[in-house]
Design a protein that fits this description.
The complex is a heterodimer of chains A (about 110) and B (about 110).
Chain A: E1 3-6, E2 11-14, E3 19-26, E4 32-38, E5 45-51, E6 56-59, E7 62-67, E8 72-77, E9 86-93, E10 99-101, E11 105-110
Parallel strand pairs in A: 2-11
Antiparallel strand pairs in A: 1-3, 3-8, 4-5, 4-9, 6-7, 7-8, 9-10, 9-11
Chain B: E1 5-7, E2 10-13, E3 19-24, E4 31-38, E5 42-50, E6 53-56, E7 65-71, E8 74-79, E9 88-95, E10 102-104, E11 108-112
Parallel strand pairs in B: 2-11
Antiparallel strand pairs in B: 1-3, 3-8, 4-5, 4-9, 5-6, 7-8, 9-10, 9-11
Classes of the chains: A mainly beta (about 110), B mainly beta (about 110).
């Protein structure tokens, strides 16, 4: 079955450092994937999308990579700030625009 | 644009009661998704509408759950009768087929006692 895996352990990063989150998939060939941010008590908010023919996508301090050989996407936040603390979800999109979601990784940026 | 609007934001009810959750998608969006989120199971897709027509309801847990989209600006998710295991946060998200991303509402936190 299709499976999306994100590190379920919370990630603790010192302010100013780069945070890197991992999303792995199995038994699936996504057309593209998306990264969302979710704060407590709120719905997920879209951050970045990367297509299968793209290696990297950037937006301000955010960077996403897509490695179809490793079946993995990495999400980077450079110069991290306490305000970046949240749960980050990755989701793969199938041809029907349905999203297959990872469980999310909680990121904690310590001042 | 006000974004996706959901109501109520919180609902506490007793087992056996009927619960109706409401969603107003972003104007102009063609598709609407209902999700359920719990700590144990994460974000689960319940049902997906495209142009007001249910496309995939395979995620609906059982017959106690039903969803309707009578027009492009309104959808409901009904649980009858509700059970304690239905306690979760229910999200509605809308999507424009010409675009790529889903826009989520604030969610309804349902507690069934």
């Amino acid at each position: 079955s299709q499976k999306i895996e994100q590190n379920s352990e919370a990630l603790n990063i010192q302010e100013g450092k780069t945070a890197t989150l991992t999303c792995n998939y199995t038994n699936y060939s996504p057309a593209y994937l998306q990264w969302y941010r979710q704060d407590p008590g709120r719905g997920p908010v879209f951050l970045l999308l990367i297509r299968e023919n793209e290696k990297e996508k950037r937006k301000e301090r955010l960077k996403v990579t897509f490695d179809t050989t490793l079946k993995q996407s990495l999400f980077h936040i450079t110069a991290s700030q306490p305000a970046d603390s949240a749960t980050y979800l990755c989701a793969w999109t199938d041809s029907n625009y349905q999203l297959i979601w990872g469980a999310g990784t909680k990121l904690i940026i310590k001042p | 644009d006000a974004g996706v609007i959901q109501s109520p934001r919180h609902e506490v009810t007793e087992m056996g009661q009927e619960v109706t959750l409401r969603c107003k998608p972003i104007s102009g969006h063609n598709s609407l998704f209902w999700y359920r989120q719990t700590m144990m199971r994460g974000l689960e897709l319940l049902i997906y509408f495209n142009n007001n027509v249910p496309i995939d309801d395979s995620g609906m847990p059982e017959d106690r759950f039903s969803a309707k989209m009578p027009n492009a600006s309104f959808s409901t998710l009904k649980i009858q009768p509700s059970e304690p295991r239905d306690s979760a946060v229910y999200f509605c998200a809308s999507f424009e087929l010409a675009g790529d991303t889903q826009y989520f509402g604030p969610g309804t936190r349902l507690t069934v006692l």
